[in-house]
Amino acid sequence: MKKPILSLCLVLSVISTRCQVAKSSFAVGAGISLAVPVYNLTSSKTGGGADVYVTYGLNQKLAISTDVGVVGLPGKGMYPSTAIVPIRVGLRYFPLDKVYASAKAGLGVLTILKASANHFAYGVSGGYSFSRRIDASVYYDGYSNNNTSFGYAGLRIAYQF
After folding, report:
1. Which phi and psi angles does 11 have, rounded to 5°?
2. 48: CATH
3. How many domains does the chain fold into?
4. DSSP class of residue 98?
5. Backbone phi and psi for residue 24, each to the nearest 5 degrees, phi listed first
6. Alpha-carbon distance 86 to 119, whole Å?
7. What is this structure's pTM?
């Protein structure tokens, strides 16, 4: 189940679009997202989140990126809500004007009630730039440690300052 979802997200990432970063320049932005549990989160409902990001253009096709955010997934019925804080670095590749695909990895902190655990965090996404400042993307974020793994897919809208 995990591999088909990752493959689908990668394909969607490649055909989606981007906010281009000029060579040797920084870009800062913020986004909001809708997150749908898709892997090993059966006690969670659809949730959402927010993030901030920084990109640095290496050239017209490639940028380094970093992001930090928070995603909340309400619990189903009597199950508690889940909060996830991803802190990641990665690369954005721009195959076409206004189209990007990205991959990132880092730390994800999962909190349920008062308990928290660190996970390896990874994600793939692709997006479309509607203007110089606004873009939308589809993504898959996954988390794994020695005890468990889980993931969610979503839609994100971002504003670049």
Report:
1. -65, -45
2. 2.40.160.20
3. 1
4. T
5. 55, 40
6. 9
7. 0.81
